[in-house]
Amino acid sequence: GEGAVETLRASQAQILVTLKKYRKQTTDGVLQEIRKEVDKLDNKGAEIEYIAGESEFAFAAGGSKPISIEVKGYDLKILSELTDQVEKLLSQMDGVFGILDDLGKKSPETKIIIDKKKAALYGISARDISLTAKAAIEGLTPTKFKEEGREYDIRIKLREQDRNDLQALGSMLVKSNVIDAMIPLKDVAVLEVGEGPSEIRHKDQQRTVSITADITKGANRQEILKAIDYRLSEMKLSEGYSVSPAGEAKEVAESFQKIIFALILAITLVYMIMAAQFESFIQPFIIMFTVPLSIFGVAVLLFLTGKAVSVIVLLGIVMLGGVVVNNGIVLIEFINGLRAKGMPPVEAAVKASLIRTRPILMSAATSVIGLLPMGLGLGEGAELRAPLAITVMGGQTSSTIFSLVVVPALYVLVTRLLDKFFGTYYEEDEVPEENPVTKKVEIVKPDA
User: In this structure, are residues 97 and 37 in contact, taking their beta carbons and an 8 Å threshold?
Assistant: First the structure.
């Protein structure tokens, strides 16, 4: 099954295993050990699926697998062929195991092929023919037998030897209202024994086969999902048939798009707020350089800890977009204060860096140390929390170190460029020295 009890069919069973809270082995390690032992047994053609749930609630909600592919179309034969192609493709990839599909094994069935012209000639409907055949093969339950408060079905059907004899089944009579006579079933239909699907699943009003697979722990999940997506896009498909990633692969792609949009929006809003506060478009631009500086630290720390880029990591980067700018704001604000007192740009930038180094480092250190327990990945559900903490820790560290050098240097560079192209550039000087009002004040002051 797929985790939820209600999805189990009659031919399926589910075993729930709860692991001890304090154990030496990880959940994935226990699962792999069970898998190795079960593979040694004769499973008599049964397919075994392993689902690891973080909790009983997560398991009951349906253990989604990292790889999920949907094959859609009408012809069940073509669907079966496409399913085999996809499963062969997955089996050739490193790091992929536990490939399963919900196509179901074919089950034996008796097919009734109705001759519509003859049936119409005799005035016999398809319903009459199917009910007659059903009564003979499957049987009817016209009544129930009651005993001691219990009810038992009374089923009437042909004997087993007669049910297995197609000639005998063809001799069954069906009432024709047109000629008011009984007509043998073989005159209006042909009976055949064959195989058919045990079930046909639909999604979005299309016949759908779902193929699922697991990814071994330690393998690069994102690379595997990308490789699968690329290989599926290369498959040659007939019109009306589609093979597309679903489940986690689809959710990851959608989540990445949403998070990237959130990151762009966050950076834009932060820039707009700073532009309003500084009353400048240039200075917030200098401060925003702290965001890409933080990405360097994120990349290094993720590499050292072996964590892959995920939606959780991107969430951390969105957080950094609003956090790392604090260092730049503190520095630029202090430089502006020194410049207002008449200090040259270079001297003001150097002095601001020296004076503000201690409070900036203290602020960054408290943030990083506070996130350390979360980053160590202790306790249940650490796989989700740890990458977020590692991202913020790495970004905050590199941003702090670099911003103390890069932001002042960039400030000086930008000031010089503006001075070169637009003349002397002082955003703080609202009133130039040549202003008559200023001269008037200077003349009046000595007389006062």
Answer: no
User: 242 to each of 26, 72, 87, 102, 248, how far by Cα in Å?
Assistant: 38, 5, 15, 16, 18
The pTM of the full predicted model, rounded to 2 decimals, is 0.50
Largest pairwise CA distance in the chain: 134
Answer for the pair 255, 130: CB distance below 8 angstroms, yes or no. no
Q: Which helix (H) or strand (E) holds 190?
A: strand 189-197
Mean pLDDT of the chain: 78
Q: Does the pLDDT at position 63 exceed 60? A: no
Which tens digits make up the pLDDT trace of 314-363? 888 888 888 888 888 888 889 888 888 888 888 998 998 899 889 889 98
Residue 439 CA from chain centroid, whole number: 68
**What is the residue type of 439?**
K
Distances (CA, A) of 427 to 105, 328, 413, 415: 77, 17, 15, 10
Tokens of 150: 């219990």
Residues 6+ away with beta carbon under 8 Å from 199: 9, 104
Q: According to DSSP H, which parts of 174-307 are helical?
A: 221-233, 247-278, 282-287, 290-305
Residues 6+ positions from 190 with CB-CB distance below 8 Å: 112, 113, 115
Q: Look at residues 109, 106, 110, 108 and name the one whose alpha carbon lies nearest to residue 198.
A: 106
